[in-house]
Amino acid sequence: MSENPSSPVDPKFSTADGVSSRRTVMRAAAWTVPVIALATAAPAQAASRCVNKTNFNALTTGTKPTQISFPGTGVTATLSYVGYGGFTGSSTNGAVQNGPQGGNPTTQKWIKFEDETAQSGSGLDVKIVFSEPVLKLSFTLFDLDWADGNHRDAVIATTPPTSFNLASALQGNGTLNNPWRKTTVGEIPSTSLNGNVQLNYTGPITEVSFRYFQDLPNLNRNHNQLIGLSDLAFEKCL
Ligand SMILES: [Ca+2]
Ligand SMILES: [Ca+2]
User: Fold this and answer.
1) Cα(126) to centroid of ligand 2, in Å?
2) Which ligand has its closest atom nearest to the C-alpha of 225?
3) N or C: which end of the chain has fewer CB within 10 A?
């Protein structure tokens, strides 16, 4: 009974009031016409309504969060960084930064990974672990560039993505033999999206890793080498 409190068998609704109730229904029916018309346009927007994203802008610039939430979902992403190949990692890895970066505006925060003193082939392993399996995971790495005689950013997707979108200035497929890198020498300004690669995972997936390394030799000093991470997103209609 409690599942259907407004059942028409309720005696309060089976009296003469039923006449006005029918009028109400007819008026309501008239109003449903434009609603139905609008409904035909809804599927085009359905995908964006179902995208759940982290909110880096809610994080304090300069902090190094190890756990990031997807507001309103209960899902969290845990970030960890481990140096390899002789590079022990940077104290600033995982630090929240103000924009611009990756062609995004000043108002869009991002997270920094640095290979500041990494030698040729050494760098950083980044791991992202979700609190539950997610579908259609997507995020972008920013600013894979090549500073002449200083550093060349290179990334291997240790967890191969289902697909990726590579900026025209970059080459590679994210594998050990063909990492994502800039094709020609030259730095990319933070206001440009030309050094970006977007990784897409159909999932369900709970863990993603990638390796970020220095692709130029013989640089035993701070070479101010970095890439960035965008907000993470997955799709689920809640
Ligand atoms: Ca860079
Ligand atoms: Ca740059």
Assistant:
1) 19
2) 1
3) N
CA of 171 to the centre of ligand 2 (A): 16
Q: How far is the CA of 115 from the centre of ligand 1 (A)?
A: 10
49 versus 101: which is more confidently predicted?
101
User: Which residue ranges make up each domain of the chain?
Assistant: 1-40, 52-235
Query: Any idea how long the chain is?
Result: 238
Report the mean per-residue pLDDT for the chain.
84
How close is the Cα of 87 to the center of ligand 2, in Å? 21
Q: From residue 123, how far is each of 34, 165, 216 by CA, in Å?
A: 58, 23, 11
Nearest to 228 by CA among 100, 120, 119, 107: 100
Ligand 1 centroid from CA 33, angstroms: 54
Segment 196-235, tens digit of pLDDT: 999 999 999 999 999 999 999 866 677 889 999 999 999 9
Condensed to tens digits (0 to 9), the pLDDT of residues 132-166 reads: 999 999 999 999 999 998 899 999 999 999 999 99
CATH topology of domain 52-235: Jelly Rolls (2.60.120)
